[in-house]
Amino acid sequence: MADIGYDGKVAIITGSGGGLGFEHAKLLASRGAQIVINDLGGTVSGDGGDATAAETAAKAIEDLGGVAVANHDSVATPEGGEAIVNTAIEAFGRVDILINNAGILRDKAFHNMTPDLVDPVIDVHLRGAFNVTRPAWIKMREQNYGRVVNTASTAGIIGNFGQANYGAAKMGLVGFTRVLAQEGGRNNIKANAIAPIARTRMTEELLGPMGEQLNPEQISPVVAWLAHEDCPVTGEIYSCGGGMVARFFIGLTTGIFDPNLTVEGMRDRFDEIRDEDGYMVPAETADELRKLLAYFKGE
Ligand code: NAI
Fold first, then answer.
1. Shortest-distance atom of ligand 1 to CA 207
2. Distance, CA 17 to ligand 1 centroid (Å)?
3. Cα distance from N-terminal residue to C-terminal residue, the chain
4. Active-site option among 166, 238, 279, 295
5. pLDDT of residue 79
6. Is the pLDDT at 53 greater than 90, yes or no?
7. How far, in Å, from the CA of 103 to the mean position of ligand 1?
8. Residues 6+ apart with CB under 8 A from 247
9. What is the mean pLDDT of the segment spanning 211-237?
10. Distance of alpha carbon 42 from alpha carbon 299, whole angstroms
């Protein structure tokens, strides 16, 4: 089988001045994609900014023989999102791939989580994805082609102490991905998400010695495949780290059906409701409604 390439494709990667985003950029550029390196260049907590972060990364891609332009707008505002997409249009005339990767952390146990720790995290991760995806989406619809890869996290999918802000934003991206998948279907636009585990400046202290085996470049093939024309899936979530790749999915148990349900019935049949045997993985809301309809019909 032929190698996978991205000739003629234009990719925007937010937050790609370093960390995972820069690895994604290097891989896609080495396979022929033209890249917009977006990065505000702040600290892990989202303070400050440094326009040179994006420029240095774009120059590094060029030095490796790739094609890249830099943009240092923030994803956190609609104007920033527009400017990021305009950078792609002005430099390369289109946008085929959008990797929403920019991120910050402001961890704190929930009882101490004040709005200054919540709002910026939601603004960068969740609103940021809206801000950049919307102008890109309009272009993707016009050209009847697009690939969106969102960066979620187990902090939301599974939950992690001290990350109510980040976990909520990241799980918000799962819902965002699933809705985009449904809306994009008609226009050959696919949207998927990853939940990565890798050693970057964001995680090096958290991961400890295990981090040595969790290289950021091991995440990029997952992202690149989900961003490729031949990617067969949409609306899915992939856990990846250190070479492990697995699929997260949302399952619905068989449950019970009792139109005269009482609170005692809930108590008495709670184990049955929670029983994971025979669960289904709904691909769309109609799957859940069909299950309900089958109960109504006594099937
Ligand atoms: P990183 O800190 O190296 O990369 C994040 C980048 O986003 C930075 O270069 C930063 O300057 C940029 N950024 C922050 N705010 C921005 C804004 N408003 N506009 C534009 N750029 C902005 O950390 P890492 O690990 O590479 O993170 C990449 C993504 O992966 C993030 O969304 C993070 O939440 C996610 N993630 C990472 C995990 C890991 O194990 N490293 C685990 C789960 C999720």
1. 40
2. 9
3. 46
4. 166
5. 98
6. yes
7. 4
8. 236, 237, 238, 239
9. 97
10. 57
In terms of Cα–Cα distance, which of 203, 125, 130 is closest to 164?
125
What does the pLDDT read at residue 206?
87
pLDDT digits (tens, 9 = 90+) for 62-86: 999 999 999 999 999 999 999 999 9
166 among known catalytic residues: yes
When pLDDT is cut at 50, 70 and 90, the band that residue 51 belongs to is confident
Q: In the chain, what is the greatest distance between 2 CA atoms, to the nearest angstrom?
A: 69
Which residues have CB under 8 Å from 55's CB, separation 6+? 70, 72
- Computed from CA positions of residues 58, 59, 63, 67, in that sequence, does the dihedral angle turn out positive or negative? positive
DSSP 101: -
Give the tokens for residue 192: 């998927």
Q: Can you give the pLDDT at residue 215?
A: 96
Ligand 1 binding pocket (C-beta < 6 A) is 14-15, 17-21, 38-42, 44, 46, 74-76, 101-104, 124, 128, 151, 153, 196-198, 200-203
Q: Beta-strand (E) ranges in the chain? A: 10-13, 34-38, 67-71, 97-100, 146-151, 189-196, 237-241, 244-248
- Distances, alpha carbon 26 to alpha carbons 21, 161, 180, 257, in Å: 9, 33, 26, 52
